[in-house]
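Subject: sequence -> structure tokens, single chain

Hey, anyone have a minute? Need the predicted structure for the following. Not urgent.
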Amino acid sequence: MVTKNFRDNFAKIAPYVSGEQPKMDGLIKLNSNENPYPPSPKVKKAAATIESAKLSLYPSSDAEELIDKLADYHGLKTENVFVGNGSDEVLGLAFRAFFNSELPIAYPDITYSFYPVWCEFFKIPFVTFALDDSFRINADDYIAPNGGVVITNPNAPTSIGERTDFIRKILDNNRDVVVIVDEAYVDFGGSSSIELIQEYDNLLVVHTFSKSRSLAGIRVGACFGNSELIAVMNTVKNSFNSYPVDTIAQKLAIASLDDESYFSDIVHEIITTRENTVKALEQLGFHTLESSTNFIFTTHESIHAKEIFVHLREDKILVRYFNKPRIGNYLRITIGTAAQMDALIESLERLI
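Reply:
Had a minute. Here:
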């Protein structure tokens, strides 16, 4: 009797590869777009008041208090807000919820590399459109029939942000499918499309607490859209995991939203450091794309990105190198503290 090997039934998927997370003393970590500053002091205070006895109970399945806070913060109704275990889970659930057409979904060829992973995981056909020679998205590419559109704005890893009229053009030409706008980095100089959800009932805007709010460690994400879209998101969520956001994460996310002053100060500090870094890199022969994010995408006029990456790593400075077509001579560098970026520049001066 011939039987199949049980390994024949394993999932065969190429997983998303995140930024390296080494354990190394004295490391300057500029490769994962993490915020170099701690979260709001109100978050620390809220963490100190957590009652451990309550952790034996399931968290609020609908995260009502956090959703109320987000709705109030963005001037929306609670029916327009969904929260999940990081924006990656929110996006994954959205792919499952809305991309069920036989037509391929569309997104840029250079963008967040988790999108093709979800497409493979959920068996979603897809097509990509090439960024232009300036690494910008061409809105006209998305006029063709499709099963949905996904735009990261500002885009990653290129750091370039598009204005609201750009997103509006894509929406106007895709009324019959869901358009997802991933705004993970929007707080660092981008233009949010949240205001458009009142006008376009097929728009879903995704946010994260990981970047501008310094809360990558608690995994909280959110999306905003028409009440019908949010209802479908909840149906899919409750068919997969009805308790996605834990009690501690909900409490700390709320505390973060309660400190607008700290949030604004940290975002301003990162933007200022980013602009100073771009100027310093220019003096060393780098060309850096216009950034609306907490990272930059840069290339040197004569030294290959791989050589620079290796040199920086030897100096215990981690940046992100993508060995991929078109971007293989670029580095993505997270904006750290002013002192961390000074160390980066000093290391590059020694090389150049």
